[in-house]
Give the backbone structure.
Amino acid sequence: MAFEDIIGHDRQKRFLKFFLENKNIPHAFLFCGQEGIGKKKIAMEFARHLFCQTGNACGTCRPCVKLERGSHPDLVVIENEGSIGIDDSRLITKEISEYPFESEKRVIIINNAETMTIEAANALLKTIEEPPPYNHFFIITSSERDIPMTIRSRCTRVPFSVLSPVQLEQYFQGSKSLDAKKVSLVSSISFGSIGGGLFWLDDDNFSLRLKLAEIISGQRKGFVASSSVAEMASRTDRNMAMYLAFLLSFFRDLFVSHETGDMSRIVNTDLVDEINATKYDLGRVERSMKRIQESIRIMRYNVNRWLIFENLLIQITGNRQ
Ligand SMILES: [Zn+2]
């Protein structure tokens, strides 16, 4: 593994290498950008370079082998399925106030930092306000505005952009046994993110996407169908975010195909039939896109994802308007 093996983000990689070469590393980086584009991978690669005895992430020295096994005591990765809470804040406060065990440095990666509770954020703030010289934080988030300003202002900000369809194709060609047609489709519908592509490569997710398209186009009718699709699509925050993004892209495609008549510009290239079957009316498209965006916004404050999704489907399904 090397920085070069991670697809895209050339400017960010150059920026980070500069710090490694000059051995003058900031105490806290803020990596921000969409989920699933390689932010954590790049932070891990940085740690490999920092801890390696040759400085090149050789892969064979003692620290490199330990990192590979996930047993290097000076690399702390904090990430949770739910939120980063009280146990993690104890870890942040206690463990990292001591000297590193084996190296002169310690790297602390906090992934999905937007899920930090107030306790965890306060603990983090204390340690980066007066940082011991050996600690280096990588605070990683896909939702920068949910990170308290007091923390953000103490970090070196590294923004990451989404990957281009060409970079995504490069990734999916190399790492999966997919035919060319599927590679191109997945690269087109994954919203610039490898994580997004992997999500749609899951058969269940992919077929639910088709069902949603059929509901919108009116090919699949009935409240029960909508309700059960809504339930499945809203099972987790992640699922909900992906299906809402898909719905936006579907209406965008509907708009593009009717307003320009150019089907080569649509994103959901496998859903041409569903797009054509959907009754077109500019007002409907605008209203629907507004409602989807509203759902994306309120989803952040509301625990009842199913209800939000079900209401949305009722509102944007053509035959109910
Ligand atoms: Zn090494």
Summary: The first helix runs from residue 10 to 22. The domain at 3-159 is CATH 3.40.50.300 (Rossmann fold). Residues 52-54, 58, 61, 63-64 surround zinc ion (CB under 6 Å). The chain has two domains: 3-159, 202-320.
